[in-house]
């Protein structure tokens, strides 16, 4: 005997029963998952706990003890005839026992206390190296298509900065000797300007020489910078 179509009431009751069955299946699965999670929590609670205090990193205490074979920023004397030193002179360097074949002449270590003029020149040179020199170096990178990362730039400029005291002292001594030989008046202001210009010139020349060495793919290794 063929069953006739369901009445609207029977169809609704059938649909409700189907939905209740599906929901009951979902509830059973959720209850099973909750039970498993509860068991995992109990296992974790049974394990010993460790309390680690906060760890503080003092980045200001981190430093590079040694850097070899990466930089060679030699501050060589420019081509003008009157600016060559009479003998060998210490050049900008990272510590290394091997000297470069062509180096900027080095003045004897200063033994006198810094004068107000020296302090003024030194401060002006540091300001240049902290600001304009970075822009000069980036411009060289662009011209030579050799991009450097900020850390590499900082090492280059720091190496140059460490050698500025000797450079400034030499040019101040050179200016004083020239003034004494010519017996012409020379104010501290003029001396400061001349020395600062020469120091900036040497720093720029050193950066350019180093970048050109990088461009050749054979930068000098060892310590001299």
What shape does the CA trace take?
A: rod-shaped
Average pLDDT for all residues? 74
For the record, the count of structural domains works out to 2
| Number of contiguous helices | 6
- Overall strand count: 0
Percent of residues in helices comes to: 55-70%
Descriptive report:
The chain has helices at residues 8-46, 116-130, 132-144, 150-162, 164-182, 188-215. With 225 residues, the protein is mostly helical. α2 (116-130) runs parallel beside α6. The longest helix is centred in the first third of the chain and has 39 residues, at 8-46.
Quick description:
The protein is an all-alpha fold. The protein contains six helices and no strands. The longest helix is centred in the first third of the chain and has 39 residues, at 8-46.
Short descriptors:
disordered C terminus, 2 domains, 56% helix, mainly alpha, 225 residues
Produce the secondary structure layout.
Elements: H1 8-46, H2 116-130, H3 132-144, H4 150-162, H5 164-182, H6 188-215
Helix pairs in contact: 2-5, 2-6, 3-6, 5-6
